[in-house]
Specification:
The protein folds into 2 domains: 137 residues, 2-Layer Sandwich (60s Ribosomal Protein L30, Chain: A); 144 residues, Phosphoribosyl-aminoimidazole Synthetase, Chain A, domain 2 (Alpha-Beta Complex). It is built from 10 helices and 12 strands. The model has no long low-confidence stretch (mean pLDDT 97). Bound molecules: adenosine-5'-diphosphate (ADP), thiamine diphosphate and magnesium ion. This is Thiamine-monophosphate kinase.
């Protein structure tokens, strides 16, 4: 099977390669054509997933496809954007048709869940890696950025943290997908599109947590020129995590584990109670104050010293 047959069989003819009101031309030409709605801005984000860095190379290709798209669409959720389409740059060591079939099925399932369409890409030979670029749209001037947090805002997260990091040892042991519900958090993160959308016009800053809570909140603090305080006693431990780990390890996974793909955001105090009524998974975990940097404090307000803040490639 050659390059173009492969593209046709597994991607161009796939159920997720459809046109929608914002895509006037999809796979097959030199470029895809996007048609933004009036009074909107296009949100764009790219993520590369490298075998044995972001996922185990020997993992199930269906799960790899599912995870690759989820972590990329998560950036659209973090901006409050509505998904439109994505491109897929795939580098493969060889043509393995069984692998490609599983991969495209997993990709397609997640694309369906996120209402996003495959509209182009690139296929090359080399060490396994997956680069996905997502395109979404957001009402003009309303995107959730990292630079608007204000002193006295609340610091919140969209749901439980630490589960995917807690699953990593099982992932590396190649445990089957249905072995533990914890594995689902790693293999099939759910981009928080609904909460991202609900935060438009409310949150003062927002991002998705990929590297770890402390490291990523550090980006909000820096961009917004404020200090963020995380109150460890307010972090709610997921029942899935506490079933496997002692409290101390749970806290470590929550604070610096990464791979969560939940949103962290800041919001004025008076807007919180209305929001949590409609989105009960949201947790308040701290607050914004004047100053710089990020601190984690225990219930007496004493700083907890961490040996690392989150994942760094270099
Ligand atoms: N090689 C690059 N060239 C240009 N911009 C980059 C490059 N790598 C990362 N960026 C930009 O730097 C910012 C931070 O990147 P990153 O930490 O990967 O974001 P995220 O965690 O949201 O994926 C983003 O705005 C991203 O677009
Ligand atoms: C097999 C495997 N080992 C380790 C990890 C942990 N890990 C790898 S990269 C990463 C951080 C997120 O990746 P990055 O490329 O920084 O994503 P971005 O912040 O750009 O979205 C984490 C927690 C993993 N996901 N899979
Ligand atoms: Mg990135």
């Amino acid at each position: 099977m050659g390059e173009f047959e492969l593209i046709q069989a597994y991607f161009k003819s796939s159920a997720c390669a459809y046109l929608n009101k914002n895509i006037s031309l999809g796979i097959g030409d030199d470029c895809a054509l996007l048609r933004p709605s009036p009074q909107s801005e296009i949100a764009i984000s790219t993520d590369t997933l490298v075998a044995d860095v972001h996922f185990p190379a020997k993992g199930d290709a269906f799960l790899i496809g599912q995870r690759a798209l989820a972590v990329t669409v998560s950036d659209l959720a973090a901006m409050g954007a509505n998904p439109i389409g994505f491109t897929l740059a795939l580098t493969l060591p060889c043509v393995d048709q069984a692998w490609l079939k599983r991969f495209s099925e997993g990709l397609c399932l997640k694309a369906h869940e996120c209402s996003i369409s495959l509209m182009g890409g690139d296929t090359t030979k080399g060490p396994l890696s997956i680069t996905i670029t997502v395109f979404g749209e957001v009402p003009l001037g309303k995107a959730l950025r990292r630079d608007g947090a204000q002193p006295d805002d609340l610091l919140c997260v969209s749901g439980y943290l630490g589960e995917a990091a807690g699953a990593l040892s099982m992932v590396l042991d190649n445990k089957p997908y249905d072995f533990s519900a914890l594995l689902k958090s790693y293999w099939s993160p759910i981009p928080q599109l609904v909460i991202g959308h609900a935060l438009l016009g409310k949150a003062t800053a927002c991002l998705d947590i990929s590297d770890g809570l402390v490291a990523d909140c550090g980006h909000i603090a820096k961009s917004s020129n404020v200090a963020l305080v995380i109150e460890a006693s307010k972090l709610v431990i997921s029942p899935l995590l506490s079933a496997v780990y002692e409290d101390e390890q749970c806290l470590q996974n929550i604070l610096v584990g990464g791979d969560d793909y939940q949103l962290a955001f800041t919001i004025p105090r008076d807007l919180f109670s209305e929001l949590v009524k409609t989105h009960p998974s949201i947790q308040v975990i701290g607050y914004v104050t004047k100053g710089s940097g990020i601190s984690v404090v225990d219930k007496k307000g004493v700083p907890i010293v961490l040996s690392q803040q989150g994942y760094q490639h270099f």
